């Protein structure tokens, strides 16, 4: 089948959040082009363990592009070179024999490195906790069909809700802004009738929490949208800004 | 020990309503004094944590992922069933109950399944109220589709990401309770032991995966919502981290384990491409609606599929099952693919795949229609395989997907350890020997939102007068020390085998001998192989790194140690069950034309295993299944 690849990986190694990190080179020979990028790291880790070295720490779980665990910059791009694709679904046939590939963690003050490629993204959870929900207790819901929602609105709400919370948007933004992540949730609820009663408080709280976590501001460069593996649109940021303005002016 | 399922008396359709009205209540003031630990934050765990916190309990929730939103429920594609009858096609609670119990090949409890069907409608209402963006009709009402071969449209869905949207709904409800201070959330924490005091579950030992601290948590009750154990096969569609450890630690402390050999193998997955592979990807079985499955009629045929003429293609499902053809149930389609590949007719470089061909569909309905129906699945396939399924037939092979077995629970979802509850995929209760499509999400949320929050009151109402347990009790210190010693023993073991390589060996044993079809000879052989593997593991495992930093190998080592012991139990269970039912196919028990042969006279029971320690064999207890409402019948798809 396809030809095997010989590659050099330049991987960021950092023992803990307060230690100094650096790139380490690893040469990989005879790489099967059908491997996923994370399987490449698996193979390298097996080798490192056998050689008595510490394997590379990286987050991963579902390996189907939906859990949002995997998070790494590949040649400077969040999740690597293929659009709408997470690192776990990036396959090696997109690379060429002889390539040197640089792998590093998300770079953002609000995502401190835990070890190697694994970063702490709990700031995202705290932003959701600040208001990314509809306050409805179990058992108090009306019939599912009691509130009709037109198909187009439901589709738009879904498009915003498809965010997997991986943090690629923050990583690719020169300001380390979390605007795409935060706006996707605000936008999902702003489109739905269920989200209306708490809309004002939601946008104020979530934006305040985003600032408190130390994420930067949005300057509309669009890097977030370009690297988002789930194609979350920047239109959501406009929606967030509009909702924010409405909330502070009313 | 006698297993008492505590099924309420009365007519099947009134059991739950009557029982719920008679359950002991815990007053609001007392709820505030009750601590509940919930392990796992998938659909079952997150929904239970949120609901119980809303009711006033103090909840501590744990997950090993870096956020509760990453639990593997998130990967479910198809949908969630509910007996709403919105499509006016005659659906009802009874029909959903009947389809589920029949689909499970009559190896589940009538009362549990009926309750599941009964609360299914509430789940949809709750999720809609949370802002879950379900698919809708132009008129604004909720859309449904039919799924898994049933004759009504009762499946609610959110594109191909239903699990994601439902989990994010439960996660948002959980997040709200965290912000209100009613749930303390512990991410990157793995439960590594259960703590019993006077025979009751009163806490857990958890390992902080970031700094390695061994931490002790006490509570009035412990709830496990820790998912399935498909990764015992190494290759499965489960997430890499999915494991049996929490359930297994509970099992070793006295919680009995039921029907471990009932594992579902899904027919339409992307085949294994090489040795390095660690995970398989599922594609929705809706593909079988229009795709035709075939292999070459010549053994070892290495020709490109386009070079194999029509006359030399064997559409084996259409040949064997003319009435249902490519639409036979999951277990039958999976076994038939394995049969062809084992006989040497498999496709591709490895010979371990069959073709799923859309050529006829494209010719008859046009490429655009095929793209509209299956475009996202074709894209996913192309992304992974670098092949264009519009031109070259897809290659598929079955993969482990879901486990019906799990911790034994009574009608209250309590295990055989008082105070320990199990909800969602980690219990055994609702799917019998085979689960229907779109029913896993339903069960997880039913247990978490609408069953456990009430039934846990039967236990907690008796706890309010007892002294509060704290983590300074000696039972916690003993368990902590045991865990700590075990971790040291992994790190100091001077072995040569990586955890991954041992896990792969386990997967091979389980897949080859306790997979899609089983027989006494191979199972007996596997029992010895597992024993050897267990010895190899403890003498030769190599775990690198330190205990006080993030160390994935150390996490995996403890999980694989538990998987090996579970594998042993699964094989024993498969050996005991001298019949074929649902996903459990014993080659000795089949009809003349190769179909599963159930034995209701001798095997209409839940196999329930009691652990007797590392040195002794487990003991089998049987919970007899009684069918008052339905009459078990044999399945036929000819």
General description of the model:
The complex is a heterodimer of chains A (250) and B (638). Chain A is of the alpha+beta class and 250 residues long. Chain A folds into two domains: 5-114, Ubiquitin-like (UB roll); 122-136 and 147-249, Orthogonal Bundle (Fumarate Reductase Iron-sulfur Protein, Chain B, domain 2). Chain A is built from eight helices and seven strands; from the N terminus they run ββαβββββααααααα. In chain A, the strands form two sheets. Chain A has a five-stranded mixed sheet. In chain A, α2 packs antiparallel against α6, α3 runs antiparallel to α5 and α5 crosses α8 (235-249). Chain A is elongated and about 60 Å long. The model of chain A has no long low-confidence stretch (mean pLDDT 97). By secondary structure, chain B is of the alpha/beta class. Among the domains of chain B are: 267-397, Succinate dehydrogenase/fumarate reductase flavoprotein, catalytic domain (Flavocytochrome C3, Chain A, domain 1, Alpha-Beta Complex), CATH 3.90.700.10; 491-617, Methane Monooxygenase Hydroxylase, Chain G, domain 1 (Up-down Bundle), CATH 1.20.58. Chain B contains 18 helices and 21 strands. A five-stranded parallel sheet of chain B has the order 5-2-1-9-17. Chain B is globular and about 75 Å long. Chain B starts with 14 loop residues before the first helix and ends in a 14-residue tail after the last strand. The chains are: A alpha+beta (250), B alpha/beta (638). At the A-B interface, α1, α2 and α3 of A face α3, α5, α6, α11 and α12 of B.
